[in-house]
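Anyone up for a design puzzle?
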C-alpha cells in the first residue's frame, strides 16, 4: 500500500491531500470520544501535568499532541497555499488546534508554533521583505536553536539570558502547582 501511494500518480501535493483526511477523522473521533466517554478519553492521573489532559483515541497525551500538530501543520499549509477551500482548511485546523491544546503536550504545541511561523514567513511574506527572507529565516533558525539548547541547559550562562522567560514560565507552573497542591492538600515544594 505505501509503495502504491509513493509511486502511483505522484504530484507535489499528493502526500498532504492523502494524509489530511485520516488524521482529521482520528482527531474528530478523539473529540467525540472525549464527549461520549470522558473517563476513558481524558487522563485520570493525579500528576499535575496530566490532570485533564486529553489522549482521545491514542494511548497517551503526547501521541494525540503529535497527531494534532501534524494535522494542524498540514491544514495550515493547505490554507496558506490555497490547496483546499478556506472553510475546509480552517475547519481542519480548528479541529487540530482543539486537540493540540487539550492534549496539553507542550512539545507538540511549541513545535507547531515554530513550524507555523516558519511556514507563514516562507509562504506569505510581503514583497518588500522577500529580498531579506533568507536572512530572516537564518535568524529564526538560530533563535530556535539557541532556545532549544538553552532549554536543554547546554549553553553556559543561559540561565542569565533566559531569566525573563523562565520567570514567566516558572510563575505559571508554580500557579498550577499551587492549584494542584490545594486540591490534594499537599504542602508546596
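Challenge accepted. My sequence:
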Amino acid at each position: 500500500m505505501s509503495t502504491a501511494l509513493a509511486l502511483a500518480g505522484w504530484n507535489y501535493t499528493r502526500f498532504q491531500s492523502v494524509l489530511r483526511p485520516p488524521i482529521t477523522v482520528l482527531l474528530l473521533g478523539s473529540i467525540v470520544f472525549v464527549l461520549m466517554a470522558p473517563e476513558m478519553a481524558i487522563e485520570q492521573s493525579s500528576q499535575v501535568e496530566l490532570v485533564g489532559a486529553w489522549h482521545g483515541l491514542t494511548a497517551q497525551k503526547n501521541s494525540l499532541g503529535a497527531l494534532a500538530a501534524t494535522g494542524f501543520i498540514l491544514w495550515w499549509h493547505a490554507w496558506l497555499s490555497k490547496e483546499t477551500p478556506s472553510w475546509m482548511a480552517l475547519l481542519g485546523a480548528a479541529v487540530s488546534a482543539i486537540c493540540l491544546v487539550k492534549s496539553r503536550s507542550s512539545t507538540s504545541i511549541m513545535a507547531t508554533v515554530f513550524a507555523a511561523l516558519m511556514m507563514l514567513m516562507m509562504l506569505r511574506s510581503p514583497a518588500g521583505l522577500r529580498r531579506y527572507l533568507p536572512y530572516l529565516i537564518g535568524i529564526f533558525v538560530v533563535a530556535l536553536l539557541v532556545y532549544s539548547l538553552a532549554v536543554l541547559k547546554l549553553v553556559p550562562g543561559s540561565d542569565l539570558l533566559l531569566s525573563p522567560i523562565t520567570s514567566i514560565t516558572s510563575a505559571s507552573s508554580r500557579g498550577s502547582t499551587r492549584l494542584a497542591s490545594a486540591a490534594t492538600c499537599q504542602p508546596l515544594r
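A detail worth pointing out: Residues 2-124 form one domain.
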